[in-house]
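Running low. Any example?
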Amino acid sequence: MDDNRHYAVVGAGPVGTLLAAALAENGAPFAWVVRNPERRSQLSEICLQFPEGSRSLSLEQADVHPAMDGIPRSARVLLAVKAQDVSTALAALPGWNPDSVVCIGNGLQGGPQGIGLLYGGGFLNSGVLVTNHDSRLVVGGFDTSPARWNWAGDALGCSFLGCSTSDRMRELMWHKLAINCVVNPLTAMLDCDNGDLLGRLHGPLVQSILSETQQVMSRVLEPAVVGTEAAGSSTRLITC
């Protein structure tokens, strides 16, 4: 990794914290936009909780800022904001270049910038990121070579985050959306952890959600994309 290359992370939720932790482990200098003042006050270091124990990562090479104007114009930017906030965040970037921006998040996205899909991740508990070692990030774009965003994988690949690129991001984006359509509401309705859904894959709730999701997908995607690989296999949707 080129330590002279500056990066920027926008967002300090679970995804933004995971990305910042990856950059910190790799020793990369980066700016971190953290709007919440209480969250900024917690960031003398990044604390991670793994199944086998905890560790802390220094933020010595990070510059924490409250606003987007703290991002250097030459930085390569990792957006970790809600899908509905992406357009506002892009507009606030100083002279942004699509080749230097990757948006990591759930939901439907579009545009010339890179798209990142995170599988795994974690959650924040009193400022500590609870995660594991098998999270993975897939990066690419629409109708263009994913090699344009190889820099993201080079910057972020570390002991707890695997990175790869793909030229199938439109399909994978809908696939990830289908996963979330099953996992997010059912874990809330059933008051259970994600893994507990593995025993309910063939129940009526999962199947009805998948059926509705597949109907929506069939209206906007090519038939080949809406086959068993993307939406018909509930087992794959939950476990991938």
The chain has a mean pLDDT of 85. The CA atoms of residues 24 and 75 lie 16 Å apart.
